[in-house]
Amino acid sequence: APSPDALVGRSPAMQGVFRRIALVAPTAACVLVTGESGTGKELVARAVHAHSPRRDKPFLPVHVAALNPNLVESELFGHVKGAFTGAERSRPGLLALADGGTVFLDELADIPLPVQAKLLRVLERQEVTPVGAAQGAAVDVRIVSATHADLSAAVRAGRFRHDLFFRLNVYPIHLPPLRDRGDDVGLLAAHFLRRFGVANPAAALAPE
Hints:
9 helices; two-stranded antiparallel ribbon; 208 residues; single chain
């Protein structure tokens, strides 16, 4: 049976997703996962990491929309003691904690513009500069990002940097909504029943 965080699907649309994951996972390329909310974008990121040479290193999901907008920079890049009010000790950011592994940036469109500029420098120079620090430190992270928003429209509107979009959208993977993969409904239902402890999902599901 598939693991609880497995991508499940036999439909042609999902087979295409699996092929794209298999092709990009062994590389170091940035991946941008698009699709509606609930389609499983984090599961794609986890699959890319699990099939990559980084699989034994950290996988850190960062749900940008859930972060305090004033603390996104500190959360991602860390800070030094005294960098701002309340910074009583130095603290590494998530990018440094994921060194050697993969960072999954969910809801990419919610990253503030000033932080976007700093993230671009990470991709260009492979170094992280904590808030309040005079210089950066080397870091080796792969970034897989996701959004349900139209990033191209955000770029045109000036809400998202074109150069950062170009850097993160090296290898796009689009996840289809369930209405476009109807053949997978029964498969998914059985998968969730197994997760909830039903030993024989086929017997528990009426065909209709």
